[in-house]
Design goal:
nine-stranded mixed sheet; Rossmann fold; globular; 23% strand; 33% helix; two-stranded parallel ribbon; 9 helices; alpha/beta
Length: 377
């Protein structure tokens, strides 16, 4: 759908909404909730929120976060080295067949290449790895979600059908109405945020995630760079190949910081003023991240202008450690909760779709994905 065909709704409905404000004028200090200045400094509590490339760190202890991420980068590289040594030792065994030896050595080479690819992007931005503390662990899912980057920017030359179906489903439930100023929470590899901005009438898009590994890699692509990244499969169906080197690039060209901003921030408590956005999008987020969905929905309601829209997409598959089970909400329960908070559900659909089906091995998943639009009344 051409952007010109999208009528923007939400903006202008509220008399408090100032269309001349940039998103930087609406950012809040995560510590004290005071408005930040144009340099993203907080005059009230003295915290300065730095840039990593063009990604702003809007977390309450930004320096400590960057230090932890540098240690986690060192941990990723250390884990890769340990895996390479273990594979080399296995390959040297006297009882190992030649095909197995070939596979193990190829896996070691792929892992080394993958770690080098990640370091090439993240080390210059983060400032290099730091020796990790003994108790440091990687956050849940950090390296598990690397397939987001392959799917978003590499598979099928950046034209992967999973991305097209995600965009098409949102277009169907929004019925062609433009998104206006948009906030995407849990943006991950950022392809959906990118496509929505270019294809659904986004005027200024803000993408938020708490995972620096995904967001900083995506930022390099969105700003016009090309990133080489190696996909490795320990379950490859053939001895050769067990890895594949992809080139990640933005299929429709770069987006500048004037229209597309990225923030490392808490998606459960987005650090922006009330009535800042025309649209809030939560892709594959509400079942995985918030422990209190009602509290999140109240926050989304506050962030939207009157008449603004919340768009959700994703399966309802809750982490096994997310308790109580009473909060493993179904579609009907989410709609009931949203209505009580002040949303009106307009359109929804659910469909079983392929998920992370890599062309490298042909393997992936099937997920039942719910997409819906809710309007702040």
């Amino acid at each position: 759908m051409p952007v010109a065909d999208c009528a923007i709704v939400g903006r202008g409905v509220s008399p408090e909404y100032d269309v001349t404000e940039s998103i930087s004028d609406c950012a809040l200090c995560p510590k004290c909730r005071a408005r930040l200045n144009a340099a993203f400094d907080c005059a009230a509590c003295g915290v300065r929120y730095p840039l990593l490339g063009s990604v702003r760190v809007l977390l309450s202890e930004p320096s400590s976060c960057v230090e932890r991420w540098r240690m986690q980068l060192a941990l990723v590289l250390s884990h890769a080295s340990e895996a390479i040594r273990a594979l080399a030792a296995d390959a040297a065994g006297s009882d190992v067949g030649e095909s197995t030896r070939t596979r193990l050595r190829a896996l070691a080479g792929g892992i080394a290449e993958h770690a080098s690819d990640i370091a090439a992007v993240l080390e210059p931005v983060l400032g290099g790895p730091l020796p990790p503390r003994d108790e440091l662990r990687l956050p849940r899912g950090t390296m598990d979600y690397v397939n987001c980057l392959f799917r978003d920017w590499a598979w099928a030359g950046g034209q992967d059908p999973e991305n097209h179906e995600s965009l098409a489903a949102i277009r169907r439930v929004t019925e062609g109405r433009g998104l206006g100023r948009t906030l995407v929470l849990g943006a991950g590899g950022c392809r959906l945020a990118y496509d929505l901005h270019l294809g659904c009438g986004g005027t200024e898009t803000t993408a938020v995630d708490i995972d620096p590994f995904l967001l900083l890699m995506a930022e390099a692509v969105i700003r016009g760079g090309t990133v080489d990244l190696t996909e490795v499969s320990v379950n490859a169906p053939e001895v050769d190949p067990v890895s594949y080197r992809w080139r990640l690039s933005a299929p429709s060209g770069p987006l500048g910081t004037d229209v597309f901003r990225l923030f490392l921030a808490n998606g459960v408590e987005p650090p922006f003023a009330d009535q800042t956005f025309d649209t809030v999008v939560t892709p594959w987020f509400i079942d995985q991240v918030p422990t209190d969905l009602a509290a999140l929905l109240r926050r989304l309601h506050a962030l939207l202008v009157p008449g603004g829209r919340w768009i959700n997409q994703g399966p309802l598959i809750y982490p096994p450690d997310a308790l109580p089970i009473a909060r493993w909400y179904t579609r009907q329960e989410i709609f009931e909760l949203a209505k009580a908070i002040g949303f009106r559900i307009t359109t929804w659909e659910a469909a079983s779709v392929p998920h992370f089906v890599t062309p490298f091995t042909g393997r992936g998943l099937i997920e039942n994905v719910l997409t819906f639009e809710a309007v702040r009344e």
